[in-house]
Amino acid sequence: MKLSFSLFIAAVAVTSEAHKLIVKKISRTGGPQRRTPGNSAADYQINVASASAAGANAFDLNSVHDLIYIANITVGGIEYPVQLDTGSSDLFIKGNTYPIPNTNETSTTTNLTYAIGWAYGHIAHAAVEFIGIQVPSQAFVDATEVVNPALGYGAQGIAGLGFTALSTIDFTLNGTQSSSGRSLLYNLFEANPSEPNFIAFALQRDSEPGAEVIGSFSIAYSGVTGNAPIPTWPVKSPHRWNVLLDAVIVNQTITPATTKVQGAPSNKAVVLMDSGSSYTFVNHHILCVFPIIQQVDRYAPKEICDAIYGDVAGAYFDSTIGYWRVPCSTEIDMALQIGGQVFPVHPLDVNPATIADPTVCLGSFVPQTFSLATDFDWLIGDNFLRSVYSVYDFGDFDSSGKMGNPYMKLLSVIDSDDASVDFHNIRGGTPRTNITFTGLNGISVAPSFSISNDISTSLEMIGKYLPAMLAIVALNALVVVICAVVWIVMLCRKRRARHAIARARTPRSRQMSPMPMNPMHSYIAGVEPPATPPGIHIYEPVSMALTEDTFVPPTPAFHGFDGGKLQPGDRPKSVA
């Protein structure tokens, strides 16, 4: 089934979609506070958007999500607002009462532990409806105790949109010989087998509610169909939406990625694409936090933080709060190269402003020690995802019904020149123009254009069968060459045979003597021809030269010689 979560700031005018879902974007106010280093022995399920807090709405930067996206889900006939999270795979609800009405509680309890925060309760089953699609029985945690900042923004739970392999609920129920714990998306796809099984997000930074649609791509972002798929890491049976990061580009300076993940390419970084995350984690002893006031954050290695802010005039690292301080008027242009494709990041998401001081902004990459997981290096949050239209495809089905490997597709939704105008309209100053990003191997930002599904499919088929086509052409060429060689050999043999026949008809022992030529004329007036020995015949050709010596006129009338009779040897005289 195809889920297209288009989280627009302004509702997109799309009338062809079968389902729509209203999404609210919630942001917080307040100044930055000191982060305490995180060192949670968290479950491998990651959601940075959840954390504990001293009070109902009091969160320091270690727990604040600054910006989260909330949608409604119906459980047991009652609607609940939940945060959308591609970094986890479980659904939990903290209802107004316990147990939640119209659900089937089990005696099995479990604890959903996130990187920051947790939720505890009984596993229950209930009919669920999400984006107009109904699942007859969905397993979830009916939470009795929750420590999660999302609840301070009005959410009553988290809807994990990851793989079943990451689900704590499924793992727990498998221990009871039950297979009813599969993830929400797995059950949504199973309920609609005729639809392609992918989800798509278009997150925006403004405060107006957006719309989620199902059944097709958003018309504005149909160009994503022409972009190359980005494989997950690992390619087969991944637990998370991990992909490989090639490099970070900051103001035309390229910083290649590195990894600590065992088995991953050494010149890449394994990054988790997490729509529910405020930060980007890195599996290093030293990493950076990407906390964004009024926006969403990410973590990255220390060398990345230095590459971003180290050359900015007036920028310095404030050890008292653990962040870079950056002049708000400074535009930092950067992009990420993922899967061989370059995607710019909006400059307002790189150094966000604070309410406390409108002239000094916080660097959104902040060095921080953290120890968390071993299967990814970075955890990329909504601040990057707002700059792209992201598609999470669980794998295409082949003709036999077998599901292929999962992958992602990304489409840049910002123009760097327009983003510069947005930045300076808010911060002041003169926008930049002709902003370009060139990554490794000379790859630049891909143009935003749309290729129809038919053309895209045709190109994929050509690429798939091109080697076979070339092999057939090569075979045909080889056959033609062989036939030509055979014909030439046969022709040579035939000519040799003809020469042999000719030699057989004329033996070498039989010599052909030339015809002898008699230098003497056949007739000389008054001279007797020489005697020819008997038995010898000499061929004397007849000369065709018309000379006086050999010319014999026809037989006209002749007269005598001086009136006398013609004597032997006398020349006759013509009357002509």
From TrEMBL:
Q: Show the stretches that span the lipid bilayer.
A: 465-489
Which Gene3D superfamilies does this entry report, sorted A to Z?
Acid Proteases
Q: Could you list this entry's UniProt keywords, alphabetically sorted.
A: Membrane, Signal, Transmembrane, Transmembrane helix
Residues making up the signal peptide according to the UniProt record: 1-18
Q: Where is the Peptidase A1 domain?
A: 69-406
One GO biological-process annotation of the entry reads: proteolysis
Gene Ontology terms, MF aspect: aspartic-type endopeptidase activity
> What family does this belong to?
Belongs to the peptidase A1 family.
Q: What is this protein called?
A: Unplaced genomic scaffold K443scaffold_16, whole genome shotgun sequence
